[in-house]
DNA sequence: GCCATTTAAATGCCAGACAATTAAATAACT
DNA sequence: AGTTATTTAATTGTCTGGCATTTAAATGGC
């Protein structure tokens, strides 16, 4: 393997790209062992620290894992949905916070995606999903719950709804949309009245899901979206007037 | 700052996590300069190569960028949607190829998400989006087009549809779902008859979008999904009988 | 005041070494 | 022979020290 010395990219970035491409194309398959760092240094004609920087880049993307010891080395990692979740959530969160995405835009995206899962979830949700949602509703009605805990419970509730669709690809894609909204929602202070209204809608949602009523689920979600949006709007308004 | 020597994680991983957390929490803000590698070595009490490995991990996630020279250093990067796209697509693609996700499951997720964008796109699509879609339809009807090129055009067509919703968060989330399907679709051989049918559905879709007819768009998408799924099923069947 | 040069600070890269870990090979012992 | 203890070898993890390269600012000459 060779590296272009005229490229303006770091050597470690070029090497990482070379190996990453090999993984994507299938040249390197899951659990296959990469050459040792010393061998890679020879092959790419760079020093070991440079190879290591390249490997750390790949490790940061969960594309490889490393083991120490005699039979150790770097191995192509089987990227699992579980591993990809946090990455997806971190990225989505930072995208929202760094790009001045309005609450409305984020909210619209989140509920648009979530509503698309509703029919499938109404069809396929298991008793487990329903139980999780009922439990979260119960938690949400506890007095003395902090806004953060309320929002976290809200996220758990909605993730159960999404998971009810029984499609891991959907769950993965939705994780970013649903979880990344939490920091934004945390900025809203929920009064007792707000919570009661949200719990009411959550209950309607769970009821509809229990009855396999897709339209009812969609209606409840639409209600939640408009209520959340309006709530956020009024909170922002109040803050603006105060300042 | 301190690092736990009892943790079984690499020092570079711990340092990367520490800095990453500072970025997520807002302790480090966009375009802020991190301490130099030498200063970080002192602060974390590790050597410079270890610090560098940590920084490369963060760079691989586009959380920082580095500049050489007198006023250079590592800066917190403003994560843009454009930067996040390829990451998202790579991850989604690998998730599908490494986890034996069935074509049906992937297809269901993709069309479920895409159909959720349809009403918004019917409402907001610009002339530009329509023009892109018409151009791709034209390209798809060219004889002699390879299956790969046909699929790539298909992806471009659908991305224009999604972008028509005018919500960058939606576009980002959908990018993974739509683009990651391409390698799977490339495995299907599209006969002339298949292509004609798909182009017919694409045209119906564009027509409905032009008329701001949300229901028509949804119908066309539903038709596409079932046609694609059946096509894939018959191709797989044929291959199985052959072998 | 403007341009060329020097300087200093920073990242990029390398060579070599040692520590820590791990599995396999070997030796010792029963 | 079988089992246990020891040694060995391979590999990653980390450190030290250094040099090359890049870049902006400081300096100096005109």
Give a description of the structure.
2 copies of one chain form a homodimer. With about 240 residues, the first copy, chain A, is mainly alpha-helical. Chain A folds into 2 domains: about 10-75, Arc Repressor Mutant, subunit A; about 80-240, Up-down Bundle (Four Helix Bundle (Hemerythrin (Met), subunit A)), CATH 1.20.120. Chain A is about 70% helix and about 5% strand. Chain A is built from 11 helices and 2 strands. In chain A, strand 1 and strand 2 (about 75) form a beta hairpin. At the A-B interface, helix 1, helix 3, helix 4, helix 5 and helix 8 of A face helix 1, helix 3, helix 4, helix 5 and helix 8 of B.
Name some characteristics of this structure.
homodimer; two-stranded antiparallel sheet; 11 helices; DNA-binding
Strand order of the largest sheet of chain A: 1-2
Query: What is the CATH class name of the largest domain in chain A?
Result: Mainly Alpha
Largest interface by residue count?
A: A-B, 57 and 57 residues
Question: Please, what is the average pLDDT of chain A?
Answer: 92
Q: What fraction of the residues of chain A are assigned to beta strands by DSSP?
A: under 5%
Question: What is the multimeric organization of the chains shown?
Answer: homodimer
Largest sheet of chain A: 2 strands, antiparallel
Strand-and-helix sequence of chain A, N→C? Answer: HHHEEHHHHHHHH
CATH superfamily of the largest domain in chain A: GntR ligand-binding domain-like
The radius of gyration over CA of chain A amounts to 23 Å
Per CATH, the architecture of the largest domain in chain A is: Up-down Bundle
Shape of chain A: elongated
Put simply, the count of helices of chain A is 11
Termini separation of chain A (Å)? 61 Å
Poorly predicted ranges of chain A (pLDDT <50, ≥5 residues)?
none
How many domains make up the 3D coordinates of chain A? 2
Q: Percent of residues of chain A in helical segments?
A: over 70%
Number of strand segments of chain A? 2
